[in-house]
Design goal:
By secondary structure, the chain is mainly α. Helices cover about 70% and strands about 10% of the residues.
Length: about 450
């Protein structure tokens, strides 16, 4: 790998990893805000609306950060990946444009109504705005995932005479089966992130004895949503994603599991260290035949190992791919266990009195971000050495006239800027959590205005 290509990859990897901290939170919060506002309309309890307003403010902060950190990536397609953009722009440019024209403007328009228009539009239209915000947020995610899915499993395209890729069958491209599966898996994972953050703040307020009613609502909503979403990440969405990888990228599946030799009744590795030099998995603890069932629905199915593929087609960093995948799976399993225990105690009416578990929920909020990052690393490292799987190698996609020094310089600039943005975001979130939910003004039957603090 050339020095310039390495730095191009590192810069894009850094910027997209930092950027995705925010969309996963906004997509998760968008769904929970709809739930909170819907419950407020259904029950007539203003505390649900107080909770929705609080989380809408945090949504707004995260949305703004997502916009600021996402813009540089659009430019990097041209500055760092010129050859890739020239060959594939006729395909991926369509969904990137659709994301901006349809989804982003829908999302940004209705977040303004949610933040500042409640008194003007009334509760029912405000709820409709929340639904529109959810639609825009998730539609934006779908278009981005369609773009990525073309790189993972290219369909619906044709090669022009000049070697560029053009859309030939729009419906096949937009409804790529890889995109559909990946979208539901990704959105469930984003909901886990939102739910854990909501539960963490509710648990923190409960520990401090603050904002009791909104704290209870946030804690209950976060725990229940976290359990449901964590289970959906594993099954059926994660299972379907595994089947998709096994069908279309079998070499990636072998690398994810550190599997070098082919054979039936393939074991799933719980722990171990891939030893690429000796082509084996060191110190493995495995579940017999489980990988065969996950990949092909048959415990006796043959699963190919890395040794059965040309080494030129192996993922370029098998160790990082293996550990990224196992970190995602391991954390996902822990999420199910934590939220199942919290849900059981919530059902028993004991959760608010279990301080150790409240502390666990409070401190658990960073881990879905880690799991999502590890999952995306596994997906993108698994695609290597291809930019567009089977059609264009990563080594062919860089901008040959942009040298490594320029890329390193801008990467350092991004790192410094993003550090400042990250600290600013955390400070603003801390201020909002410290302030808590705002007051709700309720008009009594006599016409007097009273104030209810959740």
């Amino acid at each position: 790998m050339s020095d310039s290509l390495f730095w191009h990859r590192l810069q894009f990897g850094f910027t997209i990893t930092f950027h995705y901290i925010f969309p996963q939170l906004t997509m998760g919060l968008a769904l929970l805000i709809v739930v909170l506002k819907g419950m407020g309309l259904r029950t007539g309890n203003s505390a649900w609306h107080d909770a929705a307003r609080f989380w809408t403010r945090l949504f707004g902060l995260s949305f703004a950060m997502g916009v600021v950190t996402g813009v540089p990536m659009e430019f990097q397609f041209g500055t760092n990946w010129g050859a890739f953009t020239a060959r594939t722009g006729g395909v991926i440019g369509q969904t990137l444009a659709m994301e901006g024209i349809f989804a982003f403007f829908l999302e940004s328009s209705f977040v303004a109504i949610l933040l500042w228009g409640e008194k003007r539009v009334g509760p029912r239209l405000h709820f409709a705005a929340a639904v529109a915000l959810l639609a825009g947020s998730w539609l934006s995610g779908y278009f981005i995932i369609v773009t990525n899915s073309f790189m993972q499993h290219p369909v619906g395209h044709a090669l022009a005479a000049d070697g560029t890729m053009q859309i030939a069958r729009l419906a096949e491209f937009v409804f790529n089966p890889w995109a559909v599966v990946q979208f539901f898996h990704n959105q469930a994972a984003a909901t886990v992130t939102g739910a854990f953050v909501v539960a963490a703040v509710g648990a923190w307020w409960t520990l401090r004895g603050e904002h009791a009613e909104v704290a209870q609502i946030s804690l209950r909503t976060g725990v229940v949503a976290g359990l449901v979403a964590s289970m959906l990440v594993a099954f059926p969405t994660g299972h379907a994603q595994g089947r998709m990888v096994a069908e279309h990228q079998p070499v990636t599946l072998a690398a994810m599991e550190g599997r070098f030799d082919s054979g039936p009744r393939a074991a799933m590795a719980l722990v171990g260290q891939p030893n690429v030099a000796e082509r084996k998995l060191d110190n493995p603890i495995e579940l017999p035949a489980i990988l065969s069932w996950i990949a092909y629905g048959d415990f006796s199915a043959n699963v190919r190992g890395l040794n059965s593929f040309d080494e030129r087609d192996w993922p370029t960093n098998i160790e990082l791919l293996y550990f990224g995948f196992h970190i995602m799976v391991g954390l996902g399993t822990l999420f199910i266990g934590l939220m199942a225990l919290a849900s059981f105690l919530l059902w028993r009416g004991q959760l608010a009195h279990q301080r150790w578990l409240l502390w666990a929920l409070t401190l658990a909020f960073p881990f879905p971000f880690i799991a999502n990052t590890a999952g995306w690393m596994a997906a993108e490292l698994g695609r290597q050495p291809w930019l567009v799987y089977g059609l264009m190698r990563t080594a062919e996609g860089g901008s040959p006239t942009v040298h490594s020094g320029a890329t390193v310089f801008t990467l350092l600039g991004f790192a410094g800027l993003y550090f400042v943005l990250g600290v600013t975001f955390l400070a603003l979130v801390a201020v909002e959590i410290g302030h808590g939910p705002r007051l709700s003004h309720v008009v009594s039957a006599s016409g007097a205005s009273t104030t209810h603090h959740a």
